[in-house]
From TrEMBL:
Binding locations of substrate: 102, 128-130, 185-186, 190, 260, 287, 444, 450
Species name: Mangrovihabitans endophyticus
UniProt entry keywords in alphabetical sequence: Gluconate utilization, NADP, Oxidoreductase, Pentose shunt
Name this protein carries in UniProt: 6-phosphogluconate dehydrogenase, decarboxylating
Name of the gene this protein is made from: gnd
Lineage: Bacteria, Bacillati, Actinomycetota, Actinomycetes, Micromonosporales
Gene3D superfamilies for the chain: 6-Phosphogluconate Dehydrogenase, domain 3, N-(1-d-carboxylethyl)-l-norvaline Dehydrogenase, domain 2, NAD(P)-binding Rossmann-like Domain
Length: 475
């Protein structure tokens, strides 16, 4: 008997993906650098399906049906290159190497091009949902050739999460498209988490609510339009009490957020593309600020107001819900714009509505809300920004008074709310009839003769700033 699919790299993610394939009736070949992990998987979970454990790469490759499908689930970076180099020489034309780790999309583009030369399909695949998702149904974002998806897609769709029978998996686009979209997914996740954290902070310090009460508030929101996995787990975390001290769990955790790097990658890529993903950037920077205790300690005595519990007034809860929803819409609009910009830049032809569809379950940002994004792109595939879609326009329009109150309150009370504030600034910047960018163009022309365009004539112009009459010339 031969295996339909093989997994190499059997740490938490690889092991659970392999079990998921097996539970769906596929015969799964197993391999790991250290054989012990392979043995353990079969000993513990062998009864869940049919596994073909292999001690060597050669045995592993020999146990796979053609075309071979080899899922690589190892540490991203050099280990992935090592594993590719180990397997590529053993494979035949038309076989597939599927990198399901968190690779940078530029690495995926490089690997795909190199392996294509060697007649192999390289499928960089985003997988979201952590270890639970890997086992019970992740959201899967495969890139690579359309041809590879014909043979690989059905297996991935089998193990993916489903919403009303629709799998949370689709062919994203060629080469690095899958890993790019996974990266932006993580960036949006950063923004979402930051906004939720700001909502909590304002409710606590300007609303005077205790964590357990805020847990109740979030639980209530979870049954409304904000309903999502992240809101749900926020309520769980806020409700938790520390066993050792009896204090709220959030009060005993060190307030320094860590990051593994995909948020930072998203912002770096956005800078290269020139797309303003301020919501994601603020979230990455807020984590960086929190994670710098030395500077925070040095600055701890700086003057500023101390928040007054109750300053938010009686409408605070409802206001914060509106601010959170509006800011979240901005963050998602920015993320989708980044995907569209990359799709144009790299010729990926990504369908943004399909991305919203496959994020509806399995992944960390799963939410009701994604249905509206899908509908927005179904209605208008060429939408310039989600903010101009009817549903979102109305939601943000309706939320904006409360949103402005919350941002003003945070500023007055001295509570840092970079996510809410910058989302609002983005919204106001985007809808402005005139921006002060005209002044910046003037400054640039003054010191660097960088030229400017006029509102009333074609072409580029330069003012002779150094001359007495400061006349204008055509550039
Ligand atoms: P790790 O990232 O901890 O990687 C451990 C695995 O990599 C082991 O199987 C290890 O083999 C193997 N490995 C490391 N270096 C090499 C090498 N040079 N050659 C061969 N094999 C090597 O495992 P995870 O399961 O946590 O994650 C796997 C991938 O999935 C990563 O890219 C991660 O970013 C991504 N991912 C993780 C998620 C998560 O929630 N953990 C979510 C989504 C994606 P050995 O046993 O011999 O040491």
């Amino acid at each position: 008997e031969k295996a339909q699919i093989g997994v190499t790299g059997l740490a938490v993610m690889g092991r659970n993906l392999a079990r998921n394939f097996a539970r769906h009736g596929h015969t799964v070949a197993l391999h790991n650098r250290t054989y012990r992990r392979t043995k353990e998987l079969v000993e513990e979970f062998g009864s869940e399906g049919t596994f073909l454990p292999a001690e060597t790469a050669e045995q592993f490759v020999a146990s796979l049906e053609r075309p071979r499908r080899v899922v690589i689930m190892v540490k991203a970076g050099k280990p992935t290159d090592d594993v590719i180099e180990e397997f590529a020489p053993l494979l035949d034309e038309g076989d597939m190497l599927i990198d399901a780790g968190n690779a940078h999309f530029a690495d995926t583009r490089r690997r795909e091009a190199a392996l294509r030369e060697r007649g192999l399909h390289f499928v960089g695949t985003g997988v979201s949902g952590g270890e639970e998702g890997a086992l019970h149904g992740p959201s899967i974002m495969p890139g690579g050739s359309a041809e590879s998806y014909v043979s690989l897609g059905p297996l991935l769709e089998d193990i993916a999460a489903k919403v009303d029978g629709v799998p949370c998996c689709t062919h994203v686009g060629p080469d690095g498209a899958g890993h790019f979209v996974k990266m932006v997914h993580n960036g949006i996740e950063y923004a979402d988490m930051q906004l939720i954290a700001e909502a909590y902070d304002i409710l606590r310090r300007a609303g005077g609510h205790e964590p357990a009460e805020i847990a109740q508030i979030f639980q209530g929101w979870n049954s409304g339009r904000l309903g999502s996995y992240l809101i749900e787990i926020t309520a769980e975390v806020l409700r938790q009490n520390d066993a050792k001290t009896g204090h709220p769990f959030v009060d005993v955790v060190l307030d320094q957020a860590e990051q593994k790097g995909t948020g930072r990658w998203t912002v770096q890529a956005a800078l290269d593309l020139g797309v303003p993903v301020s919501g994601i950037a603020e979230a990455v920077f807020a984590r960086a600020l929190s994670g710098d205790p030395d500077t925070r300690a040095a600055a701890a005595g700086l003057p500023g107001p101390a928040p007054q519990a109750g300053a938010g007034g009686t409408d605070l809860q409802a206001d914060v819900e509106q601010a959170l929803f509006a800011s979240k819409i901005v963050a998602y609009a920015q993320g989708f714009q980044q995907i569209q910009a990359a799709s144009t830049e790299y010729g990926w032809d990504i369908d943004p509505g399909a991305m919203a569809t496959i994020w509806r379950d399995g992944c960390i940002i799963r939410a009701k809300f994604l249905d509206y994004i899908k509908q927005a792109y179904d209605k208008q595939p060429g939408l310039a920004t989600l903010l101009v879609d009817d549903y979102f326009q109305e939601a943000v329009g309706g939320a904006q008074d409360a949103w402005r109150r919350v941002v003003a309150l945070a500023a007055q009370q001295g509570i840092a709310a970079p996510g809410f504030a910058s989302a609002l600034a983005y919204y106001d910047g985007l809808r402005a009839q005139r921006l002060p960018a005209a002044l910046i163009q003037g400054q640039r022309d003054f010191f660097g003769a960088h030229t400017y365009r006029r509102v009333d004539a074609d072409g580029s112009f330069h003012t002779l700033w150094a001359t007495d009459d400061r006349g204008e010339v055509s550039a």
